[in-house]
């Protein structure tokens, strides 16, 4: 076409009469659903409709509809907190905030079930803003009782980085709630940086200049973890749970974690190991030189009241300087 060579591909969805529909309308609708699945599976392929596909499409549509409704009542979204623990002393160093959706009918919905949809539909923008405000509100409540190096991290989606002025937004809520930036850590994943590296670099620089720490989440799982470390300045990395899971049984995983910790030390980066589920894992990580850990072995993410109770208990056993 006008001397340009075009390569045309195709994704095919197949629905069969009478199993997948008795009317032309139903058949086309179901073939369409199968075609979208073919596209989602990397395009240039075909998929045959199954009732399971319809179920997942319906489920997704339900969640999307409920999400849209819930935006009028953002109180349904709350932050839960999971402690970050010093692997040497057992002291709680901080927490990661993780969103939960307390739906009036569905109950507590985990983020995996709605964050991807919120991201696709841009509903993550109002939701993310609400969570940033809640984070600052919460830190304000806790501030008087914090140890000086206590911090709370928040997960940020790519849409938030590219479509909102995050720097201004954080500044606004930090001022509103009198929260010092050093108490906040922003967790981002590599996939987030892929879209527009220049813009990401600019924003992250500004965020760090404002005093908020930036951490690379799920470290080691992406395609280009190292080149990101070269390009973007971050304060720390979180070693992905997939490496921690088999650290006792798989010597290769153990060596990889060891290498990541050594590399981080050389680059003056802090390290958190995620997904610690057993004492053995915690001990091994401590031996390797990883200082901070997070995982079910210490605590699951919990609602704010439980987290405060936990901190009070710890302070009573003199592990941390926290009193209410
Ligand atoms: P993530 O940021 O990698 O968060 C860690 C996830 O691992 C959390 O799942 C946490 O509950 C879980 N986890 C912690 N310790 C263990 C363990 O020992 N074993 C196992 N198997 N899992 C453990 P959760 O809370 O379901 O969150 C899932 C993902 O949803 C998060 O992964 C993050 O990507 C996203 N997410 C959560 N909260 C937010 C948020 O406020 N904003 C955005 N944009 N994304 C969020
Ligand atoms: Ca995270
Ligand atoms: Ca992670």
What's the helix and strand layout?
Layout: E1 12-14, H1 24-40, E2 46-48, H2 51-70, E3 77-86, E4 92-103, E5 107-109, H3 111-120, H4 124-142, E6 151-155, H5 158-163, H6 166-176, E7 184-188, H7 190-194, H8 197-209, E8 213-219, H9 225-231, E9 236-239, H10 241-245, H11 251-266, E10 270-273, H12 279-288, E11 292-293, H13 304-316
Parallel strand pairs: 1-2, 4-6, 6-7, 7-8, 8-9, 9-10, 10-11
Antiparallel strand pairs: 3-4, 3-11, 4-5
Helix pairs in contact: 2-3, 4-6
The structure holds ligand C2E and calcium ion (2 copies).
Pfam family, one: EAL
EC number: 3.1.4.52
Domain EAL: 60-315
Low-confidence stretches: none
Overall mean pLDDT score? Answer: 92
Which architecture of the largest domain would the CATH scheme give at its second level? Alpha-Beta Barrel
> Helix and strand succession?
EHEHEEEHHEHHEHHEHEHHEHEH
Number of domains: 2
Short summary of the structure?
The protein has helices at 24-40, 51-70, 111-120, 124-142, 158-163, 166-176, 190-194, 197-209, 225-231, 241-245, 251-266, 279-288, 304-316; strands at 12-14, 46-48, 77-86, 92-103, 107-109, 151-155, 184-188, 213-219, 236-239, 270-273, 292-293.
Folded structure, characterized:
This is cyclic-guanylate-specific phosphodiesterase. Keywords: c-di-GMP. Pfam families: EAL (PF00563), GGDEF (PF00990). This protein is of the alpha/beta class and 324 residues long. The chain has 2 domains: 12-64, no CATH class; 73-317, EAL domain (TIM Barrel), CATH 3.20.20. It contains 13 helices and 11 strands. The strands form 2 sheets. The chain has an 8-stranded mixed beta barrel with strand order 3-4-6-7-8-9-10-11, surrounded by 5 helices. The chain has a two-stranded parallel sheet with strand order 1-2. It starts with 11 loop residues before the first strand and ends in an 8-residue tail after the last helix. The model has no long low-confidence stretch (mean pLDDT 92). The structure holds ligand C2E and calcium ion (2 copies). Ligand C2E binds at residues 82, 98-99, 110-112, 115, 131, 155-157, 187, 217-218, 241, 275-277, 294-296, 301. Ligand C2E is lined by residues 82, 98-99, 110-112, 115, 131, 155-157, 187, 217-218, 241, 275-277, 294-296, 301.
């Amino acid at each position: 076409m006008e001397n340009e060579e075009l390569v045309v591909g195709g994704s095919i969805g197949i629905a069969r009469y009478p199993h997948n529909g008795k009317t032309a309308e139903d058949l086309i609708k179901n073939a369409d659903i199968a075609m979208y699945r073919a596209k989602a599976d990397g395009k240039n392929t075909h998929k045959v409709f199954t009732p399971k596909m319809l179920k997942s499409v319906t489920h997704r549509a339900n969640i999307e509809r409920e999400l849209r409704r819930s935006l009028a009542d953002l109180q349904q979204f709350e932050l839960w907190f999971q402690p970050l623990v010093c692997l040497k002393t057992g002291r709680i160093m901080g927490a990661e905030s993780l969103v939960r959706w307390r739906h009036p009918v569905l109950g507590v919905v985990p983020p995996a079930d709605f964050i991807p949809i919120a991201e696709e539909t841009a509903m993550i923008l109002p939701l993310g803003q609400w969570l940033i405000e809640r984070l600052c509100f919460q830190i304000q409540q806790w501030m008087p009782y914090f140890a000086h190096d206590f911090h709370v991290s928040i997960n940020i989606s790519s849409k938030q980085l590219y479509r909102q002025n995050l720097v201004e937004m954080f500044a606004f809520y930090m001022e509103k709630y009198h929260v010092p930036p050093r108490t906040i850590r922003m967790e981002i994943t590599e996939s987030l940086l892929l879209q527009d590296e220049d813009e990401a670099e600019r924003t992250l620089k500004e965020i760090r200049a404002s005093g908020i720490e930036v951490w690379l989440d799920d470290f080691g799982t992406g395609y280009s973890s190292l080149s990101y470390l070269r390009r973007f300045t971050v304060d720390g990395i979180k070693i992905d749970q997939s490496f921690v899971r088999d650290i006792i049984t798989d010597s290769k995983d153990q060596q990889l974690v060891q290498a990541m910790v050594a590399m981080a030390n050389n680059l003056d980066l802090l390290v958190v190991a995620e997904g610690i589920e057993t004492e053995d894992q915690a001990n091994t990580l401590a031996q390797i030189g990883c200082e901070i850990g997070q995982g079910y072995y210490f605590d699951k993410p919990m609602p704010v009241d439980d987290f405060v109770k936990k901190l009070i208990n710890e302070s009573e056993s003199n592990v941390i300087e926290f009193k209410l």
